[in-house]
Automatic annotation (TrEMBL):
It comes from Candidimonas nitroreducens. The chain crosses the membrane at residues 33-54, 75-95, 166-185, 205-226. It holds the Pfam family BPD_transp_1. Residues 29-223 form the ABC transmembrane type-1 domain. Part of the binding-protein-dependent transport system for glutamine; probably responsible for the translocation of the substrate across the membrane. This is Amino acid ABC transporter permease. Keywords: Amino-acid transport, Cell membrane, Membrane, Transmembrane, Transmembrane helix, Transport. Its main location: membrane. GO terms for biological process: amino acid transport. It is a multi-pass membrane protein. The keyword DNA-binding does not apply.
C-alpha cells in the first residue's frame, strides 16, 4: 500500500497537476500548436520537393534525395533536431535571425520531411497511369499534367497519411526544448519538464502528457474515420450504381 501511495504521490500529485495546467494551457498549448504549424509547413514543402527527386529515373538525381530520406529516417530525432536547430545559428547561418521558432520549426520540418517525402511519393506513384496518358494525349505538357492531374489526385489519396504524420509532428515538438526557448516560448514538454525539475516530482510532466493526449487522441480517431470513409466511399458508390 505504501508503494502505491509513493507512485501516486510521484506521478499523480493533484495539487502539482492543477498548479501546472494554467501554464500548459496559456503558454504551452499555443506554442506547441504554432511550432506544429511551422514544422508541418516545412515538412510538406521539403517532402513534396524531395518526392519528385525520389521518383526520378536518373540515378544521380535520385541518389541525394534517397540519402537525405535514409539519414533522417534512421537518425534519432533528438540528435537531428539539436544539430539543425542549434547548429545552424552556431555555424553563423542565421537564416531566421534571432527567431528561435524558425529554427525549431525548420528542425522539425527537415526531420519529418523525410517521412512526408515517402508519403507523397507513394501517392503520386499510385495515380492511374491511364489518367496521365489521357492528359498527355490531349497535348497537355508533362509539367501541366503533373501540376493539374498527378499532384491533386496523389495528394487526395494520401491525405489521411499526411494528416497522421502531422499528428506525429505535434509530438515531435517536445524535442525542441533542447534549443533553449525563452520562458514565453516554452511548449508543453518544456513547461512540464521545468515543473518536474523544480518540484522533484513527475506530476508536471504527467500533466503535459495529458494535454498532449487531449490533442492527439481525438485527432487520431478523426483521421482513422476519415481514412475509412475515403476507403469505403468508392465501394458504396459502385454498389449504388450497380443497383440503379
Amino acid at each position: 500500500m505504501q508503494g502505491l501511495n509513493n507512485v501516486l504521490a510521484t506521478f499523480f500529485d493533484v495539487h502539482l497537476i492543477a498548479e501546472t495546467l494554467p501554464d500548459l494551457l496559456r503558454i504551452g498549448l499555443p506554442n506547441t500548436l504554432i511550432l506544429s504549424v511551422i514544422g508541418t509547413f516545412f515538412s510538406c514543402v521539403i517532402g513534396l520537393f524531395c518526392s519528385f527527386g525520389l521518383m526520378s529515373k536518373r540515378f544521380l538525381v535520385r541518389l541525394p534525395f534517397r540519402i537525405y530520406v535514409d539519414i533522417f529516417r534512421g537518425a534519432p530525432h533528438i540528435l537531428s533536431i539539436f544539430l539543425i536547430g542549434a547548429g545552424l545559428p552556431m555555424a553563423g547561418l542565421m537564416v531566421f535571425g534571432h527567431w528561435t521558432y524558425g529554427y525549431a520549426g525548420l528542425a522539425v520540418g527537415v526531420v519529418e520531411g523525410a517521412y512526408m517525402a515517402e508519403i507523397f511519393r507513394s501517392g503520386f506513384q499510385d495515380v492511374d497511369k491511364g489518367v496521365v496518358e489521357a492528359a498527355r494525349s490531349l497535348g497537355i505538357s508533362l509539367w501541366k499534367t503533373t501540376r493539374l492531374v498527378v499532384i491533386p489526385i496523389g495528394i487526395r489519396t494520401v491525405l489521411p497519411a499526411l494528416t497522421g504524420q502531422s499528428i506525429i509532428i505535434i509530438r515531435s515538438t517536445a524535442l525542441v526544448y533542447l534549443l533553449g526557448l525563452t520562458i514565453g516560448q516554452r511548449e508543453l514538454f518544456s513547461i512540464g519538464h521545468d515543473g518536474t525539475i523544480n518540484s522533484a516530482n513527475f506530476s508536471p510532466l504527467v500533466a503535459s502528457g495529458i494535454v498532449y493526449l487531449l490533442i492527439t487522441i481525438p485527432l487520431t480517431y478523426i483521421v482513422n474515420a476519415w481514412e475509412r470513409r475515403l476507403h469505403n466511399g468508392p465501394k458504396i458508390r459502385l454498389g449504388a450504381a450497380e443497383g440503379g
